[in-house]
Batch of 2 targets.
Target 1
Amino acid sequence: MIAGLLLAAGRSKRFGADKLLAKLRGKAVIRWSAEALAAGVDELYVVLPPAADTMTQALARLDARFVVNLSRDEGMGSSIRAGVAAMPAETEAIVIALGDQPLADPTVVDAVIAKWRADGSSAVTTRYDDGQGHPVLLARDSFALLSALRGDVGARAVLESLGARVSEVRVESPMPVDVDTPEALREVEMSLR
């Protein structure tokens, strides 16, 4: 089983409000991101902060399991740890994506999974025209390393420690925009016209 792990427990400090609930063409940003990830995985897990009823409502009727990150103030590492801890025993790999990337491409999720199935690497990263980004796939043999993450760090340190056991999918486009500010949301809105 391939699980999607959508990280959505951040504080939205630069946005001034909860960026994941901001509307984009009448749909919450998190909904766009969740649908893109869900399209390619067997099960979707969404890591949320405590008391995230509005967020779960934004994801209504989407087949998702919710994981509450009680340690969200520790940063992204705590969200990854919470998500990995929630994975059932039959999980072969997880695909990590960000809740604030509404223009994430479901075909990139498919490509990352296909690459992993083809070469059996411990991880698969995504290389866009402007750098490394999400989604990132990590196989079960890296779950212990993910569970040890501390602080406001993502999986980069884990990927570096895996060295040659990491494969890469090349995407001939820029990374999807992170909706970190109202200006970024306007940029995303303009790109949809």
Target 2
Amino acid sequence: MEKTNQSLNQSTDAKPKRIRSLDALRGFDMVWILGAEGLFLALFLITGWSVFNVADQQMQHSQWHGFTMYDLIFPLFIFLAGVSLGLAAKNINVYSQQQRSEKYRHAFKRLGLLFLLGIVYNHGWGGGIPADFESIRYVSVLGRIGLAWFVAAMVVWHFANKYQALVTLGILLSYWLILAFVSIGNFGGGNFGPDFSINAWFDQTFLYGIRYQNLAVDPEGILSNLGSIVNCLLGVFAGRMLKQLQSTPSKLIIQWVIAGIVSVALALALHPIMPINKTLWTPTFVLLTSGLSILFLTLFYWLVDVLNWQRLPQFFIVIGMNSIVIYLATSIVKWQYIVDSLFGGVLASLSTPWQSLLSVICLVAVQWLFLAWLYKHKIFIKI
């Protein structure tokens, strides 16, 4: 890991102008796993308004098939990693041999660090990593982000643009065919259930260690990585469009909106054939989440970089600039204990509904203040 205010990684690449909307959208994405997802339930308890109840239901993961907005958090983050890659990455042949070696070292180091940090996140401070290596859950959110970025980087570095599109389409179609037609024993062959999908066979056969809650299929399991890689690659294409059309934002916005709507519509149309499913990360889930990611990116780009909104985006930018740090901290720091220590007396004096609301606000505020301190001192830890 490195601090961007220090010259730890010398590179001859010209740094493009930073797109503030990317940091703001990344922060907006992250805030919902810092505790803000409880905001709507608290507001529903206070007001009784059904709109807040509906919003709270959207802050829960879908049970199996289907989609909620909370399901978008993870793929949106992967998509944004692809956008950043599309803005900065070049074909590997433009670099000298030494620069190529540095690129490869960074890519493998990033993959390894995210894999290891994912293990730390899975176990947290409390239980610790067990001595029995078979009792460790090796797959993780961070590991999946690392793998998706790594594969996308290799594709961008080694293929011309038109072949990158073919590779992306090939991965998506291959995954579709595997899910729909490949069968091994009682598994697969179009079975999209929680116990006998082809993903479950792969995880039970090849996944070392334990699976999430000992389920038949791990939500960050082996085969579904194919879907998340496509999310990242589609983000690359969006980033490349941004790089090419930044001087004509109206044209860029129109193209992004069209791409987003088409992707969402295609996912919904294909849902009866290939169900939208987060755990399996089905091709329709890829299309839906990528389409929604483009539309969110369009909105934030228009507000932050075109209309130049400052105050509200800055709140999210502070989070987005250290997103990996705060994600890890949600596992290894007992933020609620800090909130109770600082504001417990005030919270106890309130009625239960208002306790819930103020507790959510304080929880997010404490974490934001920590990130604001890092931001003020220009400490941006990245991998």
